[in-house]
Amino acid sequence: MNTQALVRKQPRHATRFTRSVLFGALLFGQLGAALADVSPLSVSGNKILAGGQPASFAGNSLFWSNTGWGGEKFYNANVVRWLKSDWKSKVVRVAMGVEEDRGYLSDAAGNKARVKAVVDAAIANDLYVIIDWHTHHAESYQPQAIAFFEDMARTYGKNNHVIYEIYNEPLQVSWSGIIKPYAQAVISAIRAIDPDNLIIVGTPNWSQDVDAASRDRLTGSNIAYTLHFYAGTHGQGLRDKAQTALNNGAALFVTEWGSVSANGDGNVNETETSAWVDFMKSNGISNANWALNDKAEGASALVPGASNQGGWSASQLTRSGALAKQIIGGWPGTTPPAGCARVTVPGLLQAEAWCTMSGVQTEATTDTNGGSNVGYIETGDWMTYDINVPTGGSYTVEYRVASLNGGGNLALEHAGSSVVYGTVNIPSTGGWQNWVTVKHTVQLPSGNRKLRIAARNSGWNLNWFRISKAS
């Protein structure tokens, strides 16, 4: 446990969850004007825009809608309202099961009613809502998919809130030979009714091979591609595929992600989840966490028996649910926080001027020139900063730090990747406002970079850091 937290405040385990929610609430207040009326979504290059500006938003995916599967009880307006007010979700996804037991093909009325209940509630609460054709074999049900999405387009096509996800997770089938022709047919049917709402298309291999789709993209406007990941299974290799797709000009939407294994179970992998969050934030990728459900498995956000009407306390969230809530509540939205600005090196960056962060707080400092410092740093916390490096080479990075007991360690990383430029040990300075400067020399490539300062060990404060050419 962080001794700093014990001496200066409540124990961190008692404050971290609340603080994350407060951060999300404050951030939501800053962005309310941008998202309150749900701006129309569009695609420009590899970016999704809201009201013509780059947008990024996070939220929840409901579990399969199938009758009798257990997750359908959360398909109601009270849950949607709670996700917006308490989790600060900006998007909710309805995962309408298709051919599986008691899915749409065998119970169209029941499943469609549940979908509409959530879509109506999302519109009423100014949330984006993804209508998902949740199947692994959509090409086998193309006529049914066309009829369903024509109905959804006629009913909801005039609402900016609505996003069509026409294929959840194709299996290991050809993009160009199978998925793309299916998508062309369904998109054509939707566009005959709704000319402009965002459409998301699944990609091969359980919506992982976005690189394959990016090499043979669909024509038409406002089309993005589905990327799914589970941090317990998927790591840098899948992020590399995603980066290839982005480099090829494909816009991505992570309509499903989990902090556990790809089978929906297992332990939370916080390290890989953090790397994925960095990657999505760095690239402005919107996302929905799987799954808002109380099934007894690792991916469920709720413990078995949790209320199906919202109002969940912290004790009713699973470990993955608590982490998802923290991530969603702290999502940066359409604009970076105040103070975030690209700095050209050599230059000095104030620690509190982060662009994205996880787990830290700011406080007044007594260091020279005053202002604020970042504190309450625990292992696994991080902050990102936007820099431009005109010339690649050796750079000295100085950190203004304070630590009561020492033993801390920070890593300077490339946000959204596995690259670590270097690490620094934090000595004891004798107090939380007794400041010293520590430094190391690192190799930085040229170009625009998102740096991440990550806490390998806790118990230190950071006031600023400075990057200069090494002598």
Fold and architecture overview:
The longest helix has 24 residues, at 12-35. The radius of gyration is 23 Å and the shape is globular. It has two domains: 37-329, TIM Barrel, CATH 3.20.20.80; 343-469, Sandwich (Jelly Rolls). The model is unreliable at 1-36 (pLDDT under 50). It has helices at residues 3-8, 12-35, 77-85, 108-124, 142-156, 175-191, 204-207, 210-214, 236-247, 270-282, 319-329, and strands at 41-44, 47-50, 53-54, 58-64, 91-97, 128-134, 162-165, 199-201, 223-230, 252-258, 287-292, 343-344, 347-350, 356-358, 361-364, 372-375, 382-389, 393-403, 408-414, 420-426, 431-444, 447-457, 461-469. It has eleven helices and 23 strands. The strands form five sheets. The protein has an eight-stranded parallel barrel with strand order 4-5-6-7-8-9-10-11, surrounded by five helices. Strands 12, 14, 17, 19, 20 and 22 form a six-stranded mixed beta sheet that branches. A four-stranded antiparallel beta sheet has the order 13-23-18-21, with no helix packed on it. Helix 3 (77-85) links the parallel strand 4 and strand 5 (91-97).
Uncertain ranges? 1-36
Radius of gyration, in angstroms, nearest whole number:
23 Å
Tally the helices.
Answer: 11
Number of domains: 2
**What would CATH call the class of the largest domain?**
Alpha Beta
**Average predicted local confidence, pLDDT:** 90
Report strand order across the widest sheet.
4-5-6-7-8-9-10-11
**Spatial separation of the terminal alpha carbons:** 39 Å
Please identify the structural class as seen in this structure. Answer: alpha/beta
Number of strands: 23
Question: What fraction strand?
Answer: 25-35%
Largest sheet: 8 strands, parallel, barrel
* Portion in helices: 25-40%
CATH architecture assignment name of the largest domain: Alpha-Beta Barrel
